[in-house]
Design brief:
Two copies of one chain form a homodimer. Chain A contains eleven helices and 17 strands. By secondary structure, chain A is of the alpha+beta class. Chain A folds into two domains: 272 residues, 4-Layer Sandwich (L-amino peptidase D-ALA esterase/amidase); 128 residues, ArgJ beta chain, C-terminal domain (Ubiquitin-like (UB roll)). In chain A, the strands form three sheets. Chain A has a seven-stranded mixed β-sheet, sandwiched between helices. In chain A, strands 15-14-13-16-12-17 form a six-stranded mixed β-sheet.
Chain lengths: 412, 412
């Protein structure tokens, strides 16, 4: 257990998750690698669900149907089935067929309404799910449902990810233990405005649908919508957040919001950190902007620049590329006011080049490489526009030959 | 001499260029590599000039001053000085100072007005031009001015480019020989809406300023603004087109427009083809769109996708990524109407997967790799939306480990 802020602490021991939720994750023969590929989340009766989905114009059928079901049921969702290996996007009629077959079977096995079951898919586009394998394994998946199978579920949704992304936090509110937990996948096709990512958040206090949706969207803006691996948006990106519906005094909602923010940012940063071929986490903080949106747009533009990403990979303090990327954000700013820092090293002051030791900046960047998973891998860039009081942060990673290798030879 | 269409032929022999123009290209000690790094174009008296410049919010001083001078002189420009090695962007006061020192000296040496001289720079951002080396070499540069130094000039503007990009074409109009010639540089930081590219076009018939500007912008839309290497826009991107001002009957302007289109497209495709680390030219034709702009936007989105580019590098007919990239263009279309071809192989018909031999499609892609410079390197993707009569083409290249290598270890 380690403290995050005045309220929240990380739960480090075991698979402790919000009360009332069960999880399962198994191998159902959907991936050629025999790794886990099928997960299930079961939420307690009365749970309230919100979802946010890809902004691509080409969306997988599962995305369309999930969105409809959440709307139709007013968010009263009980179960989420997730398969990895196939995105079930661009698969013609199979898209809807396979969704319906799988969710109908789950509803039967769990004794709940079909409309209360969602399904998310991730993996190769255009290849149908081996639906017989999937259906055959559903009874096993359901019988594996446990309070402490959070780890299994988080493993079963991965594709090219090298690590699980999961986090659980807790606090005490009026003597009541409150927990929020989430898990996510994503490694390539990762761009602001959702990404080839799936993320699921569970919370054991109740927040009404409308309020819950608002809280989720605030958290997503500062987390999943502020990361970039490669500028790509997928057909399947989905975030689903469920709370148990167990009411809490409204005055504590700000604490819950903080908790949701922490969980979303933790997962989002771990997606960027685990970017395909990445060796470090790039954190770009833009300060002194006129509006928060401007700040975040510039930060994203820097995180998304191939030339910034390759320079960082080469531990090259090529600050000109950072400024050029900021210039491509479509946000107006005056270069003559700009301060730029890489780590603790000031590079520009009011647009003028400072005296700095280029070798030391390079050494700073080198020291962050392969610190992965230790959270000592953060290359920090701070850009102060000195034109206002707003700020925003975005996260990305370096661009390596490994990224090219992974994506030139992609298999499940 | 090889025929292009009913009117125009390529000039293949020697350095034959439009009448009245002189060129020079020398090494002035601006690059550490001792390669040529300083070029000059001298246009005949009465010439008319138009320019189009980067849309980045951070623009080099040279871009700002060029734009002002063209406006102030109503396009009456005589000389263009170009240096490679340093972009002279984000260099504080040096930006304007060095521009003024260099162009003043050129005007003195050529006996023309200072306002009639432009200067373009390309190379590393944030590093001042070694101005003493540059000034010292200006007399030599001017004395080297020749009708047939087109090749030298086109070499002197290159940075990470592996090849010269130059083209000259000619036709006969009413017994008069008419020529258009252009040269360009660009290899990385290349994205639709200009790129880290400089391009210069010369033409020996006269077209009035307003008309000339219109013709140039039509050509650029279908050429330099339809290519992508890495999604980056630079601080220095510039296109400058000069015609001699020698009037021609207006009824022949459509032939001149065709000629400008040919030269611009030829140069733009060669920039994409020479993209950093590229092994092939990617050509994406989108047909059946409701508007030309929609078609070109989808085509650009596909050309600009890291995942499409890495798939092509791996000769992997991963059509799902093509569709996903089209979905990210913000243009609405119905997937159930879409036909997709890679080369001659049909992949989708009305959104449904066709029977095709994946190995053969991969072999087709393989056969295009390293056909570079032979123009047998074009991987063709055709997407028919079957929703209208409009179409558009964009060009890009594959994304290789070499791109990462070049940009992790960039030196002049």
């Amino acid at each position: 257990m380690s403290q995050i802020d005045a309220n929240w602490s990380f739960i480090s021991e075991g698979d402790v998750t919000p009360e009332g939720f069960c999880f399962a994750g198994i191998s159902a023969g959907l991936k050629t690698s025999k790794k886990k590929d099928l997960a299930l989340i079961l939420a307690p009766e009365g749970s309230i669900c919100s979802g946010m989905f890809t902004q691509s114009k080409v969306r997988a059928s599962c995305v369309e149907i999930c969105e409809k079901r959440i709307k139709k049921s007013s968010g009263l969702v009980r179960a989420i089935l997730i398969n990895s290996g196939q995105a079930n996007a661009c698969t013609g009629n199979f898209g809807t067929q396979h969704f319906l077959i799988a969710t109908s079977k789950i509803s039967e096995l769990l004794g709940i309404e079909e409309e209360e079951v969602l399904m998310c898919s991730t993996g190769v586009i255009g290849v149908p799910i081996p639906i017989n394998n999937l259906v055959k394994n559903l009874p096993k998946l359901v019988s594996d449902l446990q309070v402490n199978s959070f780890q299994n579920a988080s493993e079963a949704i991965l594709t090219t990810d090298l690590t699980c992304k999961k986090v659980a936090i807790e606090t005490n509110i009026e003597g009541r233990k409150v927990r929020i937990a989430g898990f996510a996948k994503g490694s390539g096709m990762i761009y602001p405005n959702m990404a080839t990512m799936l993320a699921f958040l569970t919370c054991d206090v109740g927040v009404e649908k409308e309020e819950w949706e608002k809280m989720i969207s605030i958290a997503i803006k500062k987390s999943f919508n502020a990361i970039s691996v490669d500028g790509e948006t997928s057909t399947n990106d989905s975030f689903i957040g469920i709370n148990t519906g167990k009411k809490i005094n409204k005055k504590f909602l700000s604490i819950i919001q903080l908790g949701i923010d922490i969980v979303c940012q933790n997962l989002a940063k771990n997606i960027a950190r685990d970017g395909e071929g990445a060796n470090c986490l790039l954190e770009v903080l833009v300060q002194g902007a006129k509006h928060d949106d401007d700040a975040i747009r510039i930060a994203k533009s820097i995180c998304n620049s191939s030339l910034v990403k390759t320079a960082i990979h080469g531990c090259d303090p090529n600050w000109g590329r950072i400024i050029a990327a900021a210039g491509n954000s479509e946000v107006e700013f005056n270069l003559n006011h700009v301060d730029l820092y890489i780590g603790d090293y000031q590079i520009l002051e009011s647009g003028n080049l400072c005296q700095y030791d280029s070798q030391k900046v390079s050494d700073y960047m080198k020291s962050k490489m392969n610190g992965k998973y230790l959270e000592e891998d953060i290359v920090l860039i701070i850009l102060n526009l000195n034109s206002g009081l707003s700020k925003g942060t975005a996260w990305g990673c370096d661009l390596s030959k490994k990224y090219v290798e992974i994506n030139s030879e992609y298999t499940t």
